[in-house]
Amino acid sequence: MIKSALAIFTTLLFIHAGLAPANAQTTTTAKKTIVKKPVAKKVVAKRTVTTTKTVARGSLNNREKLVRKVSVVKGKRHVSYQRVSAAPSVSPVPPVMTAGDIAGLNMTPDPLALRSNVALVVDPANSQVLFEKNSAVALPIASVTKLMTALVVVEARMNMEETLTVTDDDVDREKHSSSRLRVGATLSRDDMLHIALMSSENRAASALGRNYPGGLPAFVAAMNAKARSLGMMETHYVDSTGLSSQNVASARDLAKLVVAAYNYPIIRQYSTDPKYMVEPSGHALQYNSSNRLTSNKEWDIGLQKTGFINEAGHCLVMYTRIEGRPVVMVFLDSKGRLSHVGDATRMRKWLVEDQPKNLTRVKMVRADQG
Known about the structure:
The chain is α+β, with helices and mostly antiparallel strands. It folds into two domains: 35 residues; 255 residues, 3-Layer(aba) Sandwich (Beta-lactamase). It has nine helices and 16 strands. It has a five-stranded antiparallel sheet with strand order 7-6-16-15-14, with helices on both faces. Strands 3-4-5 form a three-stranded antiparallel sheet, with no helix packed on it. The C terminus is likely disordered.
């Protein structure tokens, strides 16, 4: 009886303390048995500030990379390494091949290491060829086309003050090029010609052709007829902008076009202006020249036109004076946004430094022999 009372007292003591004796999992009363379970203590985790820096250590193979992780925990620096799957390699997008590249013209060497597949330098006074590279090959000429567009417009003697309206027909749906002239914008034929020559505005050139008597088909026919009259036998036009790669010509033909267009002061002025302001539908817009050489005081440029589409590369034609001597330069299918300008600068330096030899006659080996 005493032991039973002592056991009950001990059990009650442990229950009050929140514990149960190791050898007493149950408490027996006269009426029922109560099972007591141990009460788990709450564990509060201490906050740890971790800073991790991951540094790639290089490739283990084509599929895995070793990554070095640097962690700072409670002010202590820990370094670990982990293998991770490498991202699959992506093949580079191949460069767009121009028509000249496809024809193999990029394999033609020249002493100036020009980036243009085609080059021609001519003295217009006597038709002497000072430099020549693939000059008889017909290639896409991009916006150099606009020089013939200007020639046809000027020789048609149309009313230059007539207002022309940009329509949906002038929107470029072939190359999707942008334009600052919105559909519905109005400008005089004179202003359209100005920004088409100076800044290569495509919608302006399209509007000029479309507003020719007989429309664009008649205008293109007039362009091709003018080319034939100038002896441009490797030339063919299909539009007034040059956006189509079917507008083709050889450097020899373009030299003839430059000389013919140079006879018109309006084409000389409009093509060489560095900037010009127009107000289509009353909104002022400033256009800049597409040829930065027009603002370069070291150059004396009497006429110029640039051009670019993927098939043609970068193109440039100029009538300039070097050491007081008139020179026509033609560069077609050049690689790089300013490469045609760089080639012109390189050519000018070459002509000046090697005088009088270079300004007499230098003829390069051509890919179009025969």
